[in-house]
Amino acid sequence: MAVTYTDPYGPPWKLRWWRMVRQWRGSIWQVLWLEWLMLILLGALSITLTWALFPDFVLNAASLPLMDVTQHLYTRFQAAIGLMLGFYTSTMFSRWQDVRQTEGKVIGVVLNTSLQVSSLISAAHAVRESFWASEDVRGTHEFSQTSLDEIKPDTKPPAALSENDVAAVQFTLIRWINLAHALGCGLLYEKRASFLANLNQLVDRGLLTHAEKHILEAAPPALANAKYALPLTWYSSLVKELSLDPRFGVTAMDVQSLNENPSRMRSAIAHQVAIKNTPVPLMYRQLVQATVRSYCTILVILAGFSSSVVENRESLGLDKIKQSSAFPACGRTLPGVYRDRGGRARQIQAIYNGPGWRDTGAESTHFTIIVALLTALRTALWTIHPSKRDS
Question: What GO molecular function annotation could you give as one example from this UniProt entry (predicted)?
Answer without folding.
Answer: chloride channel activity
